[in-house]
Amino acid sequence: MQLSLFGSVDGRRFVPGWRRELVIGLLGRVKLDLSRSEPADGAYLTVVSLFGGIEAIAPAGCSVTVAGSSVFGKRKTRVEQGEGPAVTLGLWSLLGSVKVSPAKGLPT
Question: What is the DSSP secondary-structure string of 52-76?
Fold first, then answer.
């Protein structure tokens, strides 16, 4: 679990092969580059942000499912399904947008 009260969370501390992770940002942006640590098949990431946006960069080749809700903010998902591990992103935001994009250098 990663927690940030005032400031941003970057998600660099995931162990390769992670299965379940929880990230909470109370006042600040949550930016997660999931391409830095490959998840296990069936991995589930829950991200909760009360006052700030969530940006997730999906790992290359993964089959990504996005769940969750944004109360006051937009949601934008730009990932294509891959043949790799299945990953579910439960992204919950009260005041802020949610964006899921592919790793750099991959088609959008």
Answer: S-EEEEEPTT-EEEEEEEEEES-EE
Nearest one of 76, 69, 66 to 49, comparing CA atoms: 69
The C-alpha atoms of residue 60 and residue 57 are separated, in whole angstroms, by: 9
In a domain, 91, yes or no: yes
Residue 107 in any domain: the answer is no
**What pLDDT, in 10s, does the model give residues 56-103?**
999 888 999 999 999 999 999 998 888 889 999 999 999 999 999 998
Q: What total of structural domains would you count in the chain? A: 1
Q: What is the pLDDT of residue 11?
A: 67
Q: Rounded distance, CA 17 to CA 4, Å?
A: 23
- Predicted structure pTM score: 0.87
Residue 43 near residue 23, CB atoms below 8 Å:
no
Residue 44 lies in a domain: yes
Domain with 75, as residue range(s), is 2-102
